[in-house]
Design goal:
Layout (H helix, E strand, L loop, with lengths): L4 H23 L3 E6 L5 H4 L11 H10 L8 E5 L2 H9 L5 E3 L15 H7 L1 H9 L11 H14 L9 E5 L2 H12 L15 E8 L2 E9 L5 H6 L3
Parallel strand pairs: 1-4, 2-3, 2-4
Antiparallel strand pairs: 1-5, 5-6
Helix pairs in contact: 3-4, 5-6, 7-8
Amino acid sequence: MAPSAHSTALDAVVCLLKRSQFRELTRVFTVRVMLISPALNAALREARFDGDAPLDASGVRRARAAAAAVPAADRRVHGSDERCSGTAEALGLRSDPEPSLRGWDLGRWRGQRLAEVSRDEPEAVSTWLSDPSAAPHDGESLLDLQARVGGWLSSLHGEGADDGSVLAVVEPAAVRAAIVHALGLPPQAFWRLDVAPLTLTELSGRSGRWNLGCGRPLSTGTDEITAAHGR
């Protein structure tokens, strides 16, 4: 039997309602955050707490070589550190500085080698690695770092912010802090995460329910990753 005009109209209304509900459900999952770790600089090659050191010539060259692999985004930002701004420029990005995504402030340890600090202040380093609330360097604690980066992530879900994508060039510590916050991991999980230079990490979803796309290299070469791991 052919459907009546009434039932056809009713079916159409139900279909529209379902489409509207589907759009509303998917709308809250549309934030896509793409985090790119910057290229290496001389300080990191020497295992120093770099303290906002710029890229060297090698880092600039490698970032330029990876530029073609950078994904498109509706908004682009970078950490306010020189290494991040230099990487963003070398990648050909027109991005704005984001103070909330600056590198980890390690106070008086800045510019020193990790080996030197471990030798001179072994108890302080041990406390720093074991207590996320500690700041023996007179800088920023791990909990402070995670709260700062997590606050930025949460702000993306404010009114009118639930669509589009954001690309950010940020220090590895900020990438690790973002992952810990997004996945609700214990603070100490930060030390178990490894972020190589010039890799892309993606977070998609909404506050309290993020999906993680683990870091992939922006180029096919392996020398950056090898250098980052000291092998």
